[in-house]
Amino acid sequence: MTEDFDNLTQDLAINIKQGELYLCFDLPDHGGFVLPALGVHEVIQKQIREITPIPNSSSMLLGATNLRGQIIWVGYLARFLGLRASLNEIYNKSEISIIAIEDQGFILGLAIDSLIEIQWLDPEKMKSSSLLNPYILGDWLIQDQSKQIVRLLDYKKILHSKKWMLI
Q: Alpha-carbon distance 37 to 20, whole Å?
C-alpha cells in the first residue's frame, strides 16, 4: 500500500509545473518579454480606431479606450521602454494586442506587437538583464528550439512611472 502511495506522489510531482506563470509577448525588433500573470488584468484586441488619440501627448501614448465601461490609457510599450519603434508597426495593423496591467485598482493598457503564450518560468533561473533599463528585472533563456531570451518587466514600476504624468 505504501509503495502505491509513493508511486502516486511521484507521478503527481512530475505533472506539477515548476515556477510561476508569465505572459510572453514580442515587441518589434526587440524580442521576447514577459509579465507576471498576477499583474495582468486581461488581454484584449482592439481596432486602432477604437483608441481615441489624446492631442498634444507623447508618442508613447496611443490614446484612451473603453475597457468594460472604464476609460483607460493605452501606451505603446516599446516606446515607453525607450526602444526604437515605429508607430507604423501599430497603425498598419487591423487590430492591436493590448495587455491591461493592474495594481491597486489602476489599470493601464500596453500595446504590444504580438502575444506568444502563457508559460511557467522558474524565478530562480532568472539572470541579470543584459539591457540596462529600470523596468527590466532580469532575463530567462527559454529552453526550447528557439533558445530565445525573454525579459521580465516590472509591471508595477511601469504602471506607476512618472513618465505617464509627463504626457
A: 8
Using the CB atoms, write b or e for 50-66: b if 16+ within 10 Å: ebeeeeeeeebbbbbbe
Fold (topology level) of 18-166: OB fold (Dihydrolipoamide Acetyltransferase, E2P) (2.40.50)
Domain boundaries of the chain, sorted by first residue:
18-166
For residues 46 and 65, the answer to whether their CB atoms sit within 8 Å is yes
Taking alpha carbons only, the member of 120, 121, 99 closest to residue 27 is 99
> Which pTM value belongs to this model?
0.83
Positive or negative CA dihedral for 152, 155, 161, 167?
A: positive
Q: Could you read off the pLDDT of 100-120 as tens digits, one per residue?
A: 999 999 999 999 988 888 988
